[in-house]
């Protein structure tokens, strides 16, 4: 089973995501960008699902993505934002920031699975 890294500071959202995906991929949850970068430096993941707001005073999802892209070891990792920013201009902004794809919360399971399977095929 392929491993997916889910970066999300909200424990409830993390549990929901793990439940939605448990039959399809192995979901590893981390609560912040720092832990994400550390794990990407030592382990291999099929893709990363990234929230944008990762807690007050913490590195956000956009900054985490910038650091992923700046590292030659991780710059090719697929990173999909899963965020509560749901306006049409938000999607465009995050795609321009360098995310490979965009999903807004609350995520519908069929759309989540369809999006992930595109990249895991």
In short:
With 121 residues, this protein is α/β, with parallel strands linked by helices.
What does this structure look like?
The protein is an alpha/beta fold. It has a single domain (3-120), classed as Response regulator (Rossmann fold, 3-Layer(aba) Sandwich), CATH 3.40.50.2300. 44% of the residues lie in helices and 19% in strands. The chain is built from five helices and five strands, in the order βαβαβαβαβα. The chain has helices at 11-21, 33-42, 61-70, 88-97, 109-120, and strands at residues 3-7, 26-30, 47-50, 79-83, 101-104. Helix 3 links the parallel strand 3 (47-50) and strand 4 (79-83). Helix 2 (33-42) runs parallel beside helix 3.
Keyword list:
121 residues; 5 helices; single chain; Rossmann fold; five-stranded parallel beta sheet
General form: globular
Biggest sheet details: 5 strands, parallel
Query: CATH-wise, what's the superfamily?
Result: Response regulator
Q: Helix and strand succession?
A: EHEHEHEHEH
Strand order of the largest sheet: 2-1-3-4-5
Mean pLDDT: 95
Low-confidence parts: none
The CATH first-level class comes to: Alpha Beta
> In CATH terms, what is the architecture?
3-Layer(aba) Sandwich
As a percent range, the share of strand residues is 15-25%
Structural class: alpha/beta
**Quaternary structure type:** single chain
CATH topology heading: Rossmann fold
How many β-strand runs?
5
**Number of folding domains?**
1
């Amino acid at each position: 089973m392929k491993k997916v890294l889910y970066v999300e500071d909200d424990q409830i959202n993390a549990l929901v995501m793990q439940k939605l995906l448990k039959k399809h991929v192995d979901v590893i949850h981390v609560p912040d960008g720092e832990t994400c970068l550390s794990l990407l430096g030592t382990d291999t993941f099929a893709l990363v699902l990234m929230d944008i707001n990762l807690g007050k005073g913490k590195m956000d999802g956009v900054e985490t993505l910038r650091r992923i892209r700046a590292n030659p070891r991780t710059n090719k990792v697929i990173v999909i934002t899963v965020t509560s920013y749901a306006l049409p201009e938000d999607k465009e902004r995050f795609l321009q920031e360098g995310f490979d794809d965009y999903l807004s919360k609350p995520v519908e399971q069929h759309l989540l699975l369809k999006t992930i399977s595109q990249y895991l095929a």
